[in-house]
């Protein structure tokens, strides 16, 4: 049993390490809809990867990053509000992905595995991709922690302090896109954003500083992963959704704690 669950467990722990700090920024900046947009776009990357016979990990990551760049460019050139742009990109990319899948006559695609995750199918190659992506994200967050925190508190003040707000915002979006791409097979496109938002929202209840919130978010993510895998193993439930259910239970439990006045 240990050998069978080792790769899924390690993959989940790596993803939680990346999702915790990023999820904190997503919660602080109210970017949850952006995460959902990239999750929808990941299906387009999957379809294009299968259609053009490209490595799926590369296709998923490339598509998510391109959608993030497209959003930044549209924000600069369009007078349409950001939430409207996100809605357009989310539904157009999802629809284009489903249309692309229809051209795959000779390819059998298990869309359920990509929509809801297939944790127990994680391979050694998948684990290497997840670990590498996590290392990149953690390295960037450690390097850009103060600038990212500055633009989160106040973009106007960050400009006064000499930070390139547009570049930092783009880097943050690209990191969110990367973590969604590498975690898609683990949790699934429809609920991947929850693995970033729920642990961070739970950690916010207990933390008294941004640094502690990111650490608590990682720990809560680890607890959700281990609890979800345990539930999946003993009750034969879907692994990805089980992780989210445990994360949701931890969030509800955190709300029972009275906040200090």
From TrEMBL:
One GO CC annotation: ATP-binding cassette (ABC) transporter complex
Gene3D superfamilies: ABC transporter involved in vitamin B12 uptake, BtuC (1.10.3470.10)
Record carries keyword DNA repair: no
Principal localisation: membrane
Pfam family, one: ABC-3
TM region(s), chain numbering: 6-28, 40-73, 85-107, 127-148, 168-201, 213-233, 239-256
Record membrane topology: Multi-pass membrane protein
One GO BP: response to zinc ion
UniProt-annotated location(s): Cell inner membrane; Cell membrane
Secretion signal span: none
Keywords assigned by UniProt, alphabetized: Cell inner membrane, Cell membrane, Ion transport, Membrane, Transmembrane, Transmembrane helix, Transport, Zinc, Zinc transport
Similarity comment: Belongs to the ABC-3 integral membrane protein family.
Function: Involved in the high-affinity zinc uptake transport system.
PANTHER family the UniProt entry points to: ABC-TRANSPORTER METAL-BINDING PROTEIN, HIGH-AFFINITY ZINC UPTAKE SYSTEM MEMBRANE PROTEIN ZNUB
Protein name as it appears in the record: High-affinity zinc uptake system membrane protein ZnuB
Organism expressing this protein natively: Veronia pacifica
